[in-house]
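Journal club prep — side note

Before the paper discussion, L.F. wants everyone to see what a predicted structure for a comparable chain looks like in token form. Sequence:
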Amino acid sequence: MDLQGVGAIASALVALVGIPAAILIGRAQTQAAVLTAELGAETGRAQAQAATQVGIAQAEATYRAALDASRSQAKAEYRQWRHTLRREAWATFATAVNDATVAAGDLVMKAGPNEDHARLNNAVTAAVDAVKFAHSVVVLEGPAHVADAAGRVRDGVTAVLLAAAKASTVARADAILRSVEKGEGPDGITADHALAARDALHDLRAAARARAEASSYPISAAGARNAAVAEAQALVLTTLAQCGVMGRRATSLIDDARHGLPPDNRRQALREAEAALDRTLAEWIGEARDYLDADAQT
């Protein structure tokens, strides 16, 4: 065999050996590519899962934030609503108290015989009902310490109205006497009759004071003082009746005189009741204002 044949055979053998090696290399490369692809896919899945988890967490955080904001807004709106209700209840109560004091003042100041006393009395009754209702709403809305202070105001209004009712009885009797003094009394009744009635009241008041200041002994002297009081009282009844002052009006004047009280004692009692109401009202307003200021800061 010549050299060319040997070379051809050698080349063939080399080619035969190279074919398996190429196959092995290609297979290894394929497996590597598959492994790389699998690793890439696994990494992609992990990244996708991580991104999904992050998205879920962000969504949950956004939802919780929105829910918290909604709750906070709801609480703020509820607080504002209660705040408004309380302010309205307190304003209504304060208005009712003011209306009641006006009605009480009218009851005394408008005591003339030509005034519509029934209307004035009805106004007082309506004022009492308004104060009671407004106070019940204040108690319902709270808070307790403001409602307690409002209760003291309500009691003060009651005291003012009672004092006004007592003062109005005497004021109306006095208005009748003054109308008689002006010549506006019944036929045949002159200013002298009114002056006689006032003198009789003065004498009754003096007799009552003398009896109260004197000792009960001797008994004979006490009897004389009692008789003087009884005589003065009878004269008062007669002179008041002549002027048209009768019933509770006459009884009120006589009771005050029998106790030695000055003619304006009932008006003085009314002024004292009004002053006490002013103090309790100021205390209640202070309680309400302090609560509103504290509530605004929370």
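L.F.'s comment for the group: The helical segments are 3-109, 117-141, 144-181, 191-213, 219-243, 247-258, 265-296. Keep this in mind when we get to the figures.
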